[in-house]
Amino acid sequence: MPKSVIITCAPTGGIHTPTMSPHLPVTPEEIAQASIEAAAAGAAIIHLHARNPATGRPDPSPELFQQFMPQISAGCDAVLNVSTGGGLGMTREERLRAAVATSPEMASLNVGSLNFGIFPMLDKHTNWKHDWEPSFLEMTRDFVFKNTFADIEYVVKELGKGHGTKFEFECYDLGHLYNLAWVVDQGWVEPPFFVQMVFGVLGGVGADLDNLLHMHTVADKLFGGSYEWSVLAAGRHQMPFATQAAMLGGNLRVGMEDSLYIGPGELAASNAAQVRKIRGIITELGHDVATPAQARQRLALKGAEHVTF
Questions:
Q1: Which Pfam families does its entry note (predicted)?
Q2: Which domains does the chain have, with CATH numbers?
């Protein structure tokens, strides 16, 4: 029998800016509400970033995470996954602060450096809500999202060994799978591995079905039966690629971190709306949606009782 599909929802992220959608969660209260609603809609894992509540700028402060993570935990049973990607331009130490402070069941870990270009979004807007937004986008024209082998080692030892946190390994290109295989060979992480394949970011692998199939094939060769795989795709590719992942027996991620839309030219009114849409597709395909308990078991997580929020 096919496995149930684990849905991850990333409700706010650190890429889109407040001007781009009035529905983007910004304050701790909005992030908590969006996360609880997404969990009720079927998300087993919630991938979390924080933002300055006044400006909407990505913010790594543990104090902000502590304002919404306890609320989310009280309102649902979803696995809370803290980003170590943070916001573009943050230092390694800044990106890790919230995860170290909250000791979550899961955290994201980018397993390779890449050009990360979001500057084309500048062409879509002229009237900005906040002064920081256009310069934030423009700086990515000359920006490398740094995730060296030293960075990866630092995170897996500090957070994985130190806190028992498991990782959502974010792979933006084929070489990132091989980087992860090298980390596994060092004995720094234990299976099962949760491999999140990322498509459609300018600077990473393109959102082409052939790329998805090839990365899945390579991951099978590298990790065999010791991993769970998931797919996310940026912008208009979100739902088609999530659907393809479900059809191929994988898991998937949606949420406003990855796309602000729910259909062509239609802004998503909520993260829960995206979760409901993909859940409907999954069930129409004849698959079950995984519960948080099933996700915890399959990913061998330490359990919600062992966190510090």
A1: BKACE
A2: 7-306 (3.20.20.70)
